[in-house]
Amino acid sequence: MEQVSRPSDDPLKVSKVLDLNNEIKQNEEYKSTINDSIDFTNAQDSALANATNSMQRIYTLTQQAANGTYNEQDRDAIRTEVENEIDTLLDSLNTSFGGRYIFAGNHTTSKPFEKTLDAEGNFTGIQYNGTTEENGPGMSGNTTKEIARGVNVELQTDGRALMNSQGEEDNLGAFFNKLLTALDENNTDDLGGELLERVDAEMNNIVNLRTGIGATNNRLTAAKDRNESEYLNLKTTYSNTQDIDLAETYMQYSMEMVAYEASLQMGNKILQNSLLNYM
């Protein structure tokens, strides 16, 4: 039961109840944003875990290909497996969540990572279709979410970090192209030296980004706990302000009824006196 139902009952209390209602609704909206962001970062973590597995396999294959005892046929087989792992890696990085690509920056409906091929169908590199400098100099492709009043968290959705560009023409796609070329040419020196080190660097880049996403997930989990605590406090305050305390109200009602009945009895005694009583 409610203490007030319209402004005329108690204008000050009605105003406070309306404010509390708005606070509760906003709290619920923040809760929805937090839960969605937690699920989003979990999807990112899973995608990067799969990407890391692909890079680890490519590292192992590169190490094997650098072995001088392997012949050209062996390296052809390794090349085929490396290409398959590149495809698997791109599938992981092109993961979508709720209809949004998780590493596409602000272009959430565009598949961010695309393999480029030459006229003969050979791998030449990777094209990133997410947020780029062309969309605005220095423009970030990360997504900002408000998780509490005046509190924002940045989701790592800019896939350019995964491209790991080290110059205009040196990025993840260019590295894979060099790796496949070295396998074609049986270049064991590059395979066991520069390219093997580069695989390790690219793998570490993915791990570092995954670590950052993990930290964001931890922050969101802490924000969820605070949000739930605030919700309970708001509901308690609302209940104390708006809801009737039945026990206290009944006690007050009983006391008022006793006083009322006593007044009636006193009135009856006075009314029982006739005109003769005053003569």
How would you describe the overall organization of this protein?
This protein is mainly alpha-helical and 279 residues long. It is 63% helix and 9% strand. The chain is built from 7 helices and 6 strands; from the N terminus they run ααββββββααααα. The protein has helices at 11-65, 72-93, 160-163, 172-184, 188-192, 194-242, 246-272, and strands spanning 96-97, 100-101, 113-117, 123-128, 143-148, 151-155. A two-stranded antiparallel sheet has the order 1-2. The protein has a two-stranded antiparallel sheet with strand order 3-4. β3 and β4 (123-128) form a beta hairpin. It is rod-shaped.
Q: Helical segment tally?
A: 7
Helix content: 55-70%
Mean pLDDT: 85
Strand content: 5-15%
Low-pLDDT windows of residues: none
Largest sheet: 2 strands, antiparallel
The Rg value, from CA coordinates, equals 35 Å
Classify the oligomer. single chain
Structural class designation: mainly alpha
- How many beta-strand segments? 6
Query: Shape, please?
Result: rod-shaped
SSE topology string: HHEEEEEEHHHHH
Q: Major sheet: order of its strands?
A: 1-2
Give a brief description.
With 279 residues, this protein is mainly alpha-helical. The chain has helices at residues 11-65, 72-93, 160-163, 172-184, 188-192, 194-242, 246-272, and strands at residues 96-97, 100-101, 113-117, 123-128, 143-148, 151-155. The radius of gyration is 35 Å and the shape is rod-shaped.
Features:
6 strands, two-stranded antiparallel ribbon, single chain, mainly alpha, rod-shaped, two-stranded antiparallel sheet, 279 residues
Topology readout:
Blueprint: H1 11-65, H2 72-93, E1 96-97, E2 100-101, E3 113-117, E4 123-128, E5 143-148, E6 151-155, H3 160-163, H4 172-184, H5 188-192, H6 194-242, H7 246-272
Antiparallel strand pairs: 1-2, 3-4, 5-6
